[in-house]
Amino acid sequence: MPLRFTGGSRGYCPHSNRTIMDFDALSRLIRERRAVFPRFYTAGEISETVILELLENANWAPSHRHTEPWRFKIVRGMALERLGRYMAERYREMSPEESFSQTQFDKMLERPLQASAVIAICMQRDEEQRVPEWEEIAAVGCAVQNLWLSASARGLAGYWSSPKTMVSDQLFFDLKENERCLGLFYLSTWEAAELPSRRGPIEGKISWIDR
To answer: In principle, which of 27, 56, 87, 211 could form an S-S bond with 108, CB 3.0–4.6 Å?
Structure first.
C-alpha cells in the first residue's frame, strides 16, 4: 500500500510503488534534533502508549543478519528515585576518596527525578556471534537515533548519557550474561527553548571516488 504524506515536495522511488515522504520535513527533523539536558525538563507524564510508539520506531533500525540486538529497560515513577540512589552510591564506591565530589554525587541522585522516564539502552549479543560486536553496537546506535528522532517529532526532550556507574554494571537492570548496558536515554517533557547547534561542512568529510 502506498505511503501517503501531506505537504512539501515529494519524490517517487522508481523501484517501488511507495511515495517517498517529504524530504524537507525529514531534513528539518534530523537537523533540529538536539541533546536536551535536565535543566530544561518539566518531568510531565508521558503515557505508556507514547513510549511504546517511540520504541516501536526504534525497533525498525537496521541490523546485520536481523540480529535486532537492542533491548530497552524503561524506568519511571518511583523507580526513578531508586535509580538515582543506585547511581549515586555506585559513584561513591567507584571513586577514590581524593576525587569524590559531593556535587557530582548529588547530581546523580537527582538527575533521574528530573526526567519523565529513563530508558536503559542495552545490547543483547547474538548468541551465535554471527556478526562482529561492533556491528551489534552500531545497530543499537541506529535504534537510538530512531528513538531520538521520534521523540523530537513528538516535541519531547531526550539525551543519551553513558555514566560509568551504569555501563559497567549488570545488577540494577538484571542483565543477562550476553547483555550489556550502553547508556541511559533521558526522556522528558520540557520547556522548549532555542538550542543552537552546528556541524562542520560535509565537504571536508567526504571523498569522491569516480574511477
So the answer is: 87
Backbone angles phi, psi at 162, to 5 degrees: -130, 65
- Does the structure show a pLDDT above 90 at 6? no
The total number of residues shown for the chain amounts to 211
The pTM for the full model equals: 0.88
Q: How far apart are CA 89 and CA 92, in angstroms?
A: 5
pLDDT digits (tens, 9 = 90+) for 14-32: 555 566 678 999 999 999 9
Mean pLDDT of 67-91: 97
Sheet arrangement for strand 179-188: 70-75, 117-124, 179-188, 157-161
Q: Can you tell me the distance from the alpha carbon of 102 to that of 16, in angstroms, rounded to the nearest whole number?
A: 58
Q: What is the DSSP letter of 190?
A: B
Q: How confident is the model at residue 3 (pLDDT cuts 50, 70, 90)?
A: very low
What is the residue-wise DSSP string for 65-91? Answer: GG---EEEEEE-TTHHHHHHHHHHHHH
Residue 127 C-alpha cell reads as 548468541
Helices (H), ranges, the chain: 23-32, 48-58, 79-94, 102-110, 133-153, 164-167
